[in-house]
Amino acid sequence: MATTLDSPRSPYARPTGKRGTNWEKWGWIYMRGSGVVLIVLIFGHLFVNLMIGKGVDALNFGFVAGKLASPFWQWWDVAMLWLALIHGGNGMRTIVNDYATQRVTRGIFKWAILAAVVILIVLGTLVVFTFDPCPAGSPADLLPKFCPAI
Amino acid sequence: MPQQSARTLTSQQKTTSRRPAGTLYRGREGMWSWVLHRITGVAIFFFLLVHILDTALVRVSPEAYNAVISTYQTPIMGLGETALVAAIVFHAFNGIRIILIDFWSAKYQKVMFYVVIGLWVVTMLGFAPRHLMNVFSH
């Protein structure tokens, strides 16, 4: 297969005859926009979970449930979930486009990436907004301090 | 067209005075930043998949969540978390470098790569000792 490679710094020209939304351009913009927001969200996430207090040693249901009981951390985590999965999925798509040379394998990989991203976004969003920080019948010492004693 | 591009490249490689000559992406800082950005990106993506699944266990039961999260507190996982944070911090700072190259100027891309490495070292000096103390101080 003869492929013509442009010189790396030649100006980009969209193939003629392409109409409608330029999705690749919006994907490119999304990677940069979401990247900047993700730096704030993930650095904050790492600082609060790993640096403050006893860090990773203090992580347990009580800690996470205590955080996720507040709408602030719910929205923080949901924003991180959506932005990071779409950012990562789009990055993986770029890599598959670069390295998977067969049309069929490329298709399989990209559908697998899409499926993983969609399933985890739905799962994560449902978990954040439907979980109960004080599940009935659980031992009190595993729960956040604000849970009413049974 | 391919022959012409190839000739343009070789002729540009010989001129060292005009930067960025040739390509930003082959050899030296440009290429290594690109390689590291890909590798760290893929690593972070796969961790993200696992991390969402383990966090989803808060919806199952406190016991299930604690059982899984306690494996994150072992020494080997502690070292893995340090590597993960190292990957995230590099990807973050190099991402800013990419944005600056795209929206500002490619002129300082090499300098900015060393700034990224410098900021990465400083951030990791702040993070790694504290995290490793938490991991190894049982």
Automatic annotation (TrEMBL), chain A:
Q: Respond yes or no to whether keyword DNA damage is given for this record.
A: no
What coarse category fits the chief subcellular location reported for this protein?
membrane
Q: Molecular function (GO) terms listed?
A: metal ion binding
Q: TM spans, by residue? A: 29-52, 72-90, 111-131
Which CDD domains would you find in this protein's record?
SQR_TypeA_SdhD_like (cd03500)
**Intracellular or extracellular location(s):** Membrane
Q: What keywords sit in the KW lines?
A: Heme, Iron, Membrane, Metal-binding, Transmembrane, Transmembrane helix
Q: Which GO terms describe its cellular component?
A: membrane
Protein name stated in the entry: Succinate dehydrogenase hydrophobic membrane anchor subunit
Say which species the protein is native to: Cryobacterium zhongshanensis
UniProtKB/TrEMBL annotation, chain B:
Which cofactors are required for activity?
heme
Q: Which UniProt keywords apply?
A: Heme, Iron, Membrane, Metal-binding, Transmembrane, Transmembrane helix
Would you indicate the residue range of the signal peptide? none
CDD domains listed in its UniProt record: SQR_TypeA_SdhC_like
Lyase listed as a keyword? no
The protein's superkingdom reads: Bacteria
**Compartmental location:** Membrane
Q: Report the transmembrane regions from the record.
A: 35-53, 111-128
Q: Where are the compositionally biased (Polar residues) regions?
A: 1-15
Q: Cross-referenced Pfam families, in alphabetical order? A: Sdh_cyt (PF01127)
In this chain, the stretch annotated as Disordered covers 1-20
Q: Which InterPro entries match?
A: SdhC_prok, SQR/QFR_C/D, Succ_DH_cytb556, SuccDH_FuR_B_TM-su
- Family of this protein: Belongs to the cytochrome b560 family.
The protein in question is named: Succinate dehydrogenase, cytochrome b556 subunit
Q: Which organism is it from?
A: Cryobacterium glucosi
